[in-house]
Amino acid sequence: MSALALGAKVLSATEARERLLSGDTTSPLYFRGHLDLSGTPLTRLPDDLSGDTLDLSDTGLPTLPERLNVGELLARNLPITHVPASTRVLFRLTLDGCPRLQHLPEGLKVGSLSLQDCPSLEHLPEGLDVCFLNISRCDALRTWPERAQVRHGHLIARDCLNLRALPAWLTHVAQLDLSGCRGITALPEGLRINGWLDVADSGLTGLPEGQDVPLRWRGVRIDAHVAFHPERITAAEVLAQPNAEVRRVMMERMGAERFLQEAGAEELDRDHDAGGERRLLRVNLPNDEPFVAVSVACPSTGRAYVLRVPPTIRTAHAASAWLAGFDDPALYQPALEA
């Protein structure tokens, strides 16, 4: 039953804010508009709080009120451990950066749910029903609920290092971001993606037979050749690529050392330091700044490393100083490289 049907007064967001900050905990409280309490220190809110959009981000609120009923709830960076089962959010629930969050109510249904950077969250709730789900960098998340659905929207799971598979119930999404999910090596056979798939630094080595999905690498559109067969990329292909963003991905996939060797890099400088020989190398790129890198050897293992540096650097010593965090190369005088 609505607030007006009950004869209750509906406050504007400004009126509701003034009442809450005055310490008035009278409930129920109904508001209209965007009630922004973000950044205001809070210890509690009254139960039975209803309205359009409520922003509690960065308030330090330790618990959410019971029977909270809003269209949108923004609750970033709070020390909450759970979301009460009585919570109702219609459109968007954002809980990013809640380090202690462990539990969400079973049967949670909301249009968009964002849980990125919640390192204590080990499980998603049974019966979860969303259109858009973001679980990026939820490091403790290892398993999926047996019953849930992401309905034709998007699933963003960047850098979920402990996930080893996608759930069988995930059958149709518009966009799927698995960048950094090294443990995910295959897609479910029944999964259909009608938008795009981001595979950067994931464990995927190919697509299921018969699937033709537009691919991305951290948002950059690429093809299967770049995504899954970096050993086949040549320096000539890289230099012929007109798109600078795609070219950078190709160079990353190819590896700086092989790219410099195949491209016939120009040597700008060479010297020796406590760690051994250093070489500063450059390759000019079309419609982009030059690729400049310093080649150094690890004094412990003898292994060579190629590290990119700003194109304005002109000496190997200045490159090493920049990598070590020195603005003035003259101040960088290591007795021995670690």
Task: Please provide a written account of the structure.
- 14% of the residues lie in helices and 30% in strands.
- The chain has 338 residues and is an alpha/beta fold.
- The strands form two sheets. Strands 1, 2, 3, 4, 5, 6, 7, 8, 9, 10, 11, 12 and 13 form a 13-stranded mixed sheet that branches.
- The protein is globular.
- The termini are far apart.
- Residues 1-5 have low confidence and may be disordered.
- InterPro entries: DUF6745, LRR_dom_sf.
Condensed summary:
The protein is of the alpha/beta class and 338 residues long. It is 14% helix and 30% strand.
What key attributes describe this structure?
30% strand, four-stranded antiparallel beta sheet, 13-stranded mixed beta sheet, 338 residues, disordered N terminus, 2 domains, alpha/beta, 6 helices, globular, single chain
Oligomeric state of the chains in view: single chain
Beta strand count: 17
Would you tell me the structural class of the helices and strands?
Answer: alpha/beta
Unreliable runs:
1-5
Give the overall shape: globular
Sequence of secondary-structure elements? EHEEEEEEEEEEEEHHHHEEEEH
Strand portion: 25-35%
Q: Helicity, in percent?
A: 10-25%
Separation, N- and C-terminal Cα atoms: 69 Å
Pfam family, one: DUF6745
Protein name: DUF6745 domain-containing protein
InterPro entries: DUF6745, LRR_dom_sf
